[in-house]
User: Fold these one by one.
Assistant:
Number 1:
Amino acid sequence: MFSNLALGVYHPGEGLLHRLRARTKLLLMLWLVVYLTLANRHMWHFVPYHVALVLAGCAIRLSGVPPGVLARRMWLPLLPAAFGVVPALMFTVGRTLHAYGPWHVPYPTARLVLIAGLAIPAAYLALAKSSVGVRGSRWFRRARVPVGLLAVGEGVGLWLVWGERGSLAVGPVVVTYDGVWLLMALLVYFPVLFCLALLLTMTTTPVALIEGMSLLLSPLRRVGLPVDEFALMVLIALRFVPTLADEAEWLVRAQSARGADFASGGARERLGSLTALIVPLIQGTMRSASELAVALESRGYGSGSRRTLLHEGPLSREDYLALGAVLAVTIASLLP
């Protein structure tokens, strides 16, 4: 249930991205954010987007992470962006690129189409009453909400067009230049950045990542900023994501063994089952935080001494080559 968490889970490997220093990957990630932000300001200049996709593909290939593992961790956070594709393309105000329609549909034809569409909810109800095995399958339970929304939409549509005469005007659908460019940002900008951030955490241990962040932020110590404390907070946040996921998984298994059901029933029943996890999960979190505080105090954290680095050493030739290659390609792609 909790094995496909996105960030904070390290994937062991021997790929090139695993061998690069953490601060090299952090610098590249920061530069790519700036690069795509600059590219988004130059409308209809698609070369940077092509370069970003190629770089993301090369990063996946050089990371050694299986594409299937990466895809399972990417689809859920990117689902809201997928739902925004149609509104971004059709409802963005700006200079018109093309207008489609209006299409005139006779009201009798519209009523026939809506009545024919009711066959899908009817078939779903027939299957629900005819076979217990089909009713308990996963795909059948997942189709409950879409089929219900389809039935409600067709019922409202029939109520609106029933008894009307003439023809129904559908459209026009106006596609603007700004809408197409916003669509490019949704399809390239956010998926590429999320994929690269995911590869950063999957190819770098949390300790190495925080050591690299501390080295990059070390000049801020001169102005009195608590760089080490900030790095510790980020390390704890990243390190305890898989820990909390494992604890939640054990709680689900323990309560399932005692008769709790988290996989069947309606939304209200599932919500009621999940609320039973909140109290023990909070108790486990507070217990882990207390044990961590005792461990930090027993090891002398907060005494003011500087910490030694375990993973971050001098940059290698691979680090300099990666930095130089990415900078050269991206800067060249920004040129007109």
Number 2:
Amino acid sequence: MKKYHDAKRLTIKDELRRKPAVAAVYFVLRALVILTMILQFFNGDYENVFLCALTLVLFVMPAIIERRLRIDLPDTMEIIILLFIFATEILGEIRSYYTTFPGWDTVMHTLNGFLCAAVGFSLVDMLDRNERFSLSLSPVFLAIVAFCFSMTIGVLWEFFECAMDTFFLKDMQKDTILNAISTVALDPTGGNTPVIIRDIEDVIVVSGGKQIPLGLGGYLDVGIRDTMKDLFVNFIGASVFSFIGYFYLIGRGKGRFARRFIPQVLEDEDKTAPQKE
């Protein structure tokens, strides 16, 4: 464990000052976000201005968490978190990378699964090592908890996307173009026999008494494939870190790669100082 020097007096600037690499990434990204915010303000897009403000708040959360929980986030993990926030909010949403680059959303959800598994692993690992709790958890159990924690976060995020699409029509669950579908809704007997339609070339929408050909080249799947793809890549990311975390514990913390993603508990200096007689 590392010592926690004067924990109550440390500020966010102090946290960043002792991590020059993290500080450099933080200030560069913050400058880019502020510049984007100014441009969006003059463009009159106030929703994007709000996203920029939210991004700035999220940027300081790792330092706040370190200070409040008395932990030390590895530099690699903290830098990836900052880049992840920037990539999702600024590049993904404002710069439309989600639609410009088809694999952008997949990469983000895979990385999210990996990072959430690291967070879940770290929380239980710190609890297991805490002297106030008489726990002795096996590496397999910790790996399973990390995996389940990551998948739960992934599912909750899909719930959020579905709610935004349902109530605010945001289309966060992106659509997929299909050329074949199978549905029991078209069973002429009203039974449960799926009717398969292949080689779909277009879909016609009737709105206000008018027929509107969409010209999409197939059937418009409303978010289901996207949701399942997101959960699957989250599963991959969570599995990868759970596998790494398991062998990290088996090797008694000798894994260099895993250490870059596992926070360390900071020990209060007062508790470690020798007592005067």
